Amino acid sequence: MNIFNRLKNFDLFALGNSAILYYLLIFYLVPVSAFLNSSFEFDVNSAKSFFYLTLALVFLILGYFSGLPEKIIKKLPNFLKREWNFSKIPWVFGIVFILSLMSKIVRILKGGYFHLNQDPEFIKSSFYSAVMMLKWLDYIVLIIAFASYFYLKKIGDKRFRYWRAIAYIIFAFEILYALPTCSKLAVIVPVLLYLIIRWYVLKFDYLMIWVAATFIFLLFSFSNICRSTTVLNFYSVSEDNKINIISTGNFAAKSFTDRTNQFVLFTKTIELGGGLGYNQMVKDFFVTLGPPRFIWENKPLSLNARGNEFGKAIGLVNFVDFDTSVGPTLPGDLYMNFGIFGLTLGMFLFGFLWRIIYLYFIKESDKSLSGILFYSFFWIEIIRGMEDWTAPVYAGLIKLLIIVLIINLFLTKKAINA
After folding, report:
1. Residue 338: CB atoms within 10 Å
2. pLDDT attached to residue 234
3. How confident is the model at residue 110 (pLDDT cuts 50, 70, 90)?
4. Residues 374, 130: Cα–Cα separation, whole Å
5. How far apart are the first and last CA of the chain?
6. Under DSSP, is residue 412 helix (H, G, I), strand (E, B) or coil?
7. Ordered alpha helix ranges (H), 75-183
8. Distance (Å, rounded) from C-alpha 162 to C-alpha 362?
9. Which residues are within 8 A (CB) of 85 and not within 5 positions of it... i.e. 6 or more apart?
10. Is 11 exposed, middle or buried (0-12, 13-18, 19+ CB in 10 A)?
11. Quick count: other Cβ atoms within 10 Å of Cβ 78?
12. What are phi and psi of 339, to 5 degrees?
């Protein structure tokens, strides 16, 4: 019974817990499943990958669960405990929503709407990064709406009915806007934000987690079909044009595992890492953090923008494919830049940092609405960034932090002594 209660109260969205589970999913699920089915070719390179990944995971866990983050957090002032001012929130919500809508329209008109086949001129334009940064306003609108709805419902304020309608309308709008882009992430993020906000404002709810997990699993198949309808026919339709249920199930499973399998990518990265010439994480961090391209016209392309080139270098992207972008994953990026020592120390430090983020925004803020607002976008970007280039992810987080700080200033009540 004690074990059951512990599982029931397990904080799934605690940043370290989420990151460890996601790490196990993307690096271990496919090779372990293949090994159990006796179809895994365990060669020298794969053995080396297993060892490095496991070492990195151990140091990540040590960094996250070390006792020092708690001592540091206790000494930091916490500005997130101020309550939201619900007389101002509708105005703030409306302004952010209008800016979000304008960003959506610009993406459509300028050729930046679809996940692939974006207009090259728009990508190279001086205001591309600014427009894509404003994309997060779409999600901030959603966070404000659901946080207001769940909080007002929790305290018994009748205004929750209005926010409930607004929240679900915005949620449906975001999903419908994202589906034609054929981007899985664009659809998954609103779902995850809903779960995170519900999790911390109302209660831990594993039933909703299973429902969302099923939806996300099916979404991988939809994304593949969205990009090429012939893919489903190849797997699921027999010669007499009948649907093969087993083949369709295999297609769904393969769509999921092919996308989440980062073990192959990490293996290729460490195999060729020394000769890739991408050991510039620190430089790339400051370049990305620098002024936007409409101010710094000759700003170099970040590694994140050169993901297609990297994918071809490690042999995972076809040379005629100019749309697919690949990131080296967090451990792969650390290894390419700093070797095995940097991999272990880096994973320890990131675990340390993630613990501080979780404690500051959730524990020390007493799960305040402002804390959940900040934590939601940190959680999304950090978990997503585990598959990406590290420097642009964290430079982008700093820029996004400034935007959310400004918005939060207008959401909260003034300090009593102000």
Report:
1. 16
2. 46
3. confident
4. 20
5. 50
6. strand
7. 89-109, 120-124, 128-133, 136-155, 160-178
8. 26
9. 411, 412, 413
10. middle
11. 16
12. 75, -170
pLDDT band, very low/low/confident/very high, at 141 (cuts 50, 70, 90): very high
Angstrom distance (rounded) from CA 307 to CA 117: 15
Q: Give the model's pLDDT for residue 278.
A: 67
Q: How far is CA 361 from the centre of its chain?
A: 17
The answer to whether the beta carbons of residues 356 and 69 sit under 8 Å apart is: yes
Supply the pLDDT for residue 4: 64
How many percent of the chain have pLDDT more than 70?
78
* CA of residue 49 relative to chain centroid, distance: 24
* 5 has a pLDDT exceeding 80: no
Strand, helix or coil for residue 84: strand
Contact 299, 360 (CB under 8 A): no
**Among all chains, which residue has been given the structure tokens 């002594």?**
417
Question: Which residue type, as a one-letter code, is found at position 278?
Answer: Y
Which two structure tokens, joined as six digits, stand for 98?
């209008």
Q: Which residue has the tokens 């690096």?
A: 27
Return phi, psi of residue 412, to 5°: -95, 160
Alpha helices, H only, 237-317: 245-260, 263-272, 281-289, 307-313
* Range 91-113 average pLDDT: 89
Q: What is the DSSP letter of 127?
A: T
Q: How far apart are CA 256 and CA 218, in angstroms?
A: 8
| Verdict on whether the full-model pTM lies above 0.70 | yes
Looking up tokens 């890492």, which residue turns up? Answer: 273
Q: Which residues of 393-411 are buried (b: 16+ CB within 10 A; e: fewer)?
A: bbbbbeebeebbeebbeeb
Q: Take residue 400 and report the two structure tokens written for it.
A: 């996004």
Does pLDDT of 215 surpass 70? yes
Question: Exposure pattern of 173-205 as b/e (b: 16+ CB <10 Å)?
Answer: bbeebbeebbbbebbbbbbbbbbbbbbbbeeee
**Helix pair 390-411, 281-289: axis angle to 10 deg:** 30
Residue that is written with structure tokens 């994309």 in the block: 135
Q: Is residue 401's pLDDT more than 50?
A: yes
Residue-wise pLDDT for 259-294, tens only, equals 778 888 898 888 876 656 667 788 888 887 877 666
Residue 384's nearest CA partner among 260, 249, 206, 211 is 260
Structure tokens of 236? 């699921």
Distance CA 128, CA 116 (A): 15
